[in-house]
Specification:
- The protein is an alpha/beta fold.
- It has two domains: about 130 residues, Rossmann fold; about 140 residues, Probable inorganic polyphosphate/atp-NAD kinase, domain 2 (Tumour Suppressor Smad4).
- The protein is about 20% helix and about 35% strand.
- It contains six helices and 17 strands.
- Strands 1, 2, 3, 4, 5, 6, 7, 9, 10, 14 and 17 form an eleven-stranded mixed beta sheet that branches.
- Strand 6 and strand 7 form a beta hairpin.
- It is globular and about 65 Å long.
């Protein structure tokens, strides 16, 4: 049976310059508005040019016999990834997190002129990465994903963290269950974070919090849950507010409307929760295979 050649799937997102230009219509109008706020359009343009240069370098490195696809971030939920894909996320760290939940073992290389925690490769390395992939010599590091699943079978994945609370970030009401322990909460919601996400939102919540466990390392398989601003009253508690997810973790929503769970800060891609609905949080079966 004839096998398909490899495919380079290049993922990008619109730059800040593109977004500003779309909002204001023309370059000079955008410049006028930004300069009135003490900001510079030239800085956005320089970053836009660097991103465009990186994209063209990566696309130019794709071997002729390979297949290729260029996907914008808003298209990810409609794009069909294939087993033969090497995913090249050309952008900043957040783009790697955005693409992670749509994959099933395909390796992801973060590419940018400025490297970061997840974006580790300069554009000029794209040719070598593709050659290593085709030769079967690409080295990857497994990164844990967190999963949220409703009692009616809907599922959400995230690389950094999943937030559960009210969509407007007002007080959220729910009953949290960790193993055999239960507590009703009125809080600003909670997050369940991975080791990858431990340096971001999770760290800002855990900072200077008494009794909070050490957050997991980036490559750890552990998850941690952190409740935000739990309010103790006659009906609600503030004891079950943080810990490693070593036991079953779930909650039952107690809000008439507005209850949601979303991952990695993408509020538009969420699970809506109705009153009395149970949401279970756990480590996902699949992981992100990050090219090192």
């Amino acid at each position: 049976m004839k096998t398909l050649p490899p495919r380079a799937v290049v993922v990008t997102r619109p730059t800040d310059y593109t977004a500003v230009l779309a909002r204001h219509g023309t370059r000079e109008q955008a410049r006028f508005v930004l300069e009135g706020r003490g900001q510079s359009l030239d800085e956005l343009w320089e970053r836009h040019v660097a991103q465009d240069r990186a994209l063209h370098t990566v696309l130019g490195a794709v071997p002729r016999h390979w297949r290729r696809a260029h996907v914008q971030r808003p298209q990810l939920d409609r794009f069909l990834f294939e087993p033969e894909d090497l995913v090249l996320a050309v952008g900043q760290d957040g783009l790697v997190a955005n693409v992670a939940k749509y994959l099933r073992g395909q390796p992801v290389a973060g590419v940018h002129s400025t490297t970061g925690a997840l974006v580790r490769h300069e554009p000029k390395r794209a040719e070598a990465l593709m050659a290593a992939f085709e030769a079967g010599g690409l080295t990857t590091e497994a990164r844990t994903l967190v999963q949220a699943q409703t009692d009616d079978g809907r599922r959400l994945l995230a690389l950094n963290e999943i937030f559960i609370g009210h969509k407007s970030h007002q007080s959220a009401r729910y009953t949290l269950q960790v193993g055999e322990r239960r507590e009703r909460h009125s809080s600003s919601g909670l997050i369940v974070a991975t080791g990858t996400g431990a340096t971001g939102w999770a760290q800002s919540i855990a900072l200077n919090r008494r009794g909070c466990p050490a957050l997991p390392d980036p490559a750890s398989r552990e998850l941690v849950y952190l409740v935000r601003e739990a309010w103790a009253s006659r009906q609600t508690g503030a004891e079950l507010v943080h810990g490693l997810v070593a036991e079953d973790l779930s909650l039952v929503a107690e809000m008439d409307d507005g209850a949601v769970a979303f991952g990695d800060g993408i509020e538009t891609d969420c699970l809506a929760l109705t009153y009395g609905q149970r949401l279970t949080l756990s480590r996902a079966e699949q992981s992100l295979e990050l090219v090192t």
